[in-house]
Write a structure and sequence with these properties.
It is built from four helices and 13 strands. It has helices at residues 50-56, 140-143, 162-172, 191-197, and strands spanning 5-7, 13-16, 20-23, 35-39, 57-66, 83-86, 91-94, 97-103, 119-125, 128-132, 149-153, 176-180, 204-205. A seven-stranded mixed beta sheet has the order 7-8-9-10-11-12-13. Helix 3 runs parallel beside helix 4. The mean pLDDT is 95.
């Protein structure tokens, strides 16, 4: 289920499945130019980096963004037909990949209000459901997610900390959970191990950071 997955830093994920898919490319530091689809969760600099999008995008790359980011796409060097805007709690198919959007926001913290329109993505590829949560707290919507593989932020301050992320994982019970969004800007590297220790015994944890 997790073969072909690479984590760079923060929520920067590369997934090589039916397509080569990136989520929030950041600190790529090399020109890969191999993306079929890029998914963006929101417009903060460590999730919507023009430099890193440029490092992974090729001529026909598709990019998927929250509808609230329409003004931001003026800075992108993408043909209009390759830009796809999405709303929370809707389902779409882009370049043969089916996915649903999940609202991604903070409940009390001011950094990612629900009105901001950030989204997580629940993709279905070859019968496996991958949930990329984005920057969020433990929300009512996230509690309802059914997935096989979950990428959950654990760094705290701007997102859930490792304790809340483990609570969510134990609620939704993915087969595999991968902690992200820690170990660089916010969150210690050892938080990944602390997160792992709090998981139910039937949940596999894979640590990439």
């Amino acid at each position: 289920m997790t073969k072909g997955i690479r984590i760079f830093t923060q929520n920067s994920i590369r997934m090589e499945k039916e397509k080569i898919i990136y989520f929030d490319p950041f600190r790529i530091n090399q020109e890969l130019k191999d993306a079929d689809i890029i998914f963006i969760t929101h417009n903060h600099y460590d999730h919507f980096s023009l430099e890193d999008i440029g490092n992974v995008a090729k001529k026909d790359t598709k990019i998927v963004l929250p509808e609230r980011m329409k003004k931001d796409t003026k800075r992108l060097n993408f043909a209009e037909e390759n830009i796809f805007y999405v709303k929370p709690e809707q389902s779409y198919t882009v370049d043969g990949i089916y996915f649903t959007t999940v609202p991604s926001y903070n409940i009390i913290k001011p950094f990612h209000p629900k009105s901001y329109g950030g989204v997580g993505y629940l993709l279905e590829i070859q019968g496996i459901r991958y949930y990329i949560a984005g920057d969020m707290d433990l929300t009512p919507e996230s509690r309802k997610v059914q997935c096989d593989v979950a990428f959950l932020p654990i760094g705290g301050i701007y997102t859930m900390n490792y304790k809340k992320a483990a609570e969510l994982a134990n609620l939704i019970k993915p087969k595999v959970v991968i902690p992200v969004h820690y170990g660089s800007i916010i969150g210690k590297r050892e938080d990944g191990l602390r997160f792992q220790e709090l998981l139910a015994s039937d949940i596999q944890c894979e640590i990439y950071i």
